[in-house]
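Question (not urgent): is this output format expected?
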Amino acid sequence: MYNVLTLNKISPVGLNRFGDQYTCGDAVGQPDAILVRSASMHEMELPENLLAIARAGAGVNNIPVDSCSEKGIVVFNTPGANANAVKELVLCGLLLSSRKIAAAIDWAKGLKGKGDEVGKLVEKGKSSFVGPEIQGKTLGVIGLGAIGVLVANAAIGLGMDVYGYDPYISVDGAWGLSSAVNHALSLDEIYANCDYITVHVPLNNDTKDMINAESIAKMKDGVRVLNYSRGGLVNNADIMEAIKSGKVASYVTDFPSDDVLCVENITAIPHLGASTPESEDNCARMAADQLKDFLENGNIVNSVNLPSVSMPRAGDARICVIHKNVPNMISPIAAALSENGMNIENMQSKSKKDYAYTILDVTGQVSEAAIAAIQAIDGVVRVRVIQ
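Got this back:
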């Protein structure tokens, strides 16, 4: 039996993936795994027996990833599961940034009670909300992951000229990207050429405040900026100053904060990027499937702190070892198994930054002595046996 703790309301589509050998809920004690959406886990005491955390979404800023790595807890996310939902809202944002639609709607509401005058007032006042079409304009997409690729391709379909920048684009991303997208070699190329810029990168020490006074100065006058990725990617004080000066014509963000609310030419959307029933179902299903495969088979797919390692089951038992990514780790593990009468039928080992993950399928009885011997190896973080 496995215990799965839910920290947010998780779509039944995901929870129904767990069978009779699972107990799931928000009051489950001693969890083997945790399913979470937006709840912050930074102050949470992580149980000793916790094996994995799955975030039903892409960002993991609410999870103490470094602490999890040190404890041998695998952290999963669900990249691409909400990509279409975000893409659709980005397309909406392109139009909102151009046509002053939100401001126009608010103005029209103020005509309530004017009776027969409304029609004339509309014709007289609409010129205040004139904005350009997006067809024929240039869009810069920073970050060509699951969402960025969809946005770039959709913008091509809308008749825009698109530049894409991502020095770390995956093979799948490259295959999925339209050949009509211009390959930008630098951020400066995006800044210099694009009428619209949309950001789709994770928030970390390298990307925090990447849209700031310095980068904005390199952009075209009247540029329109969109941020549906993370609030910290854009320096609010700098973007507000650029809005005030007219350097930036419009800023659309899915991450409102007090300072940007009710500012002219800033459209703040209440984090609706992935707020669709389809997206929530997709994320929950993907997170649940990844947890199940890890708990039952030790396979890892879409982990943010450990490498992807999967292989079919063989042998009598599977031994999963999380260890530091240092030289001479595999030999002592294999020696410990051999000395305790086990033969390795199949094995895979991969690394990701400071950590590595090794799966070994063995024949023979897995003894406590063998596991203790592996656990005692310097650099081994966690050992688990799956029968």
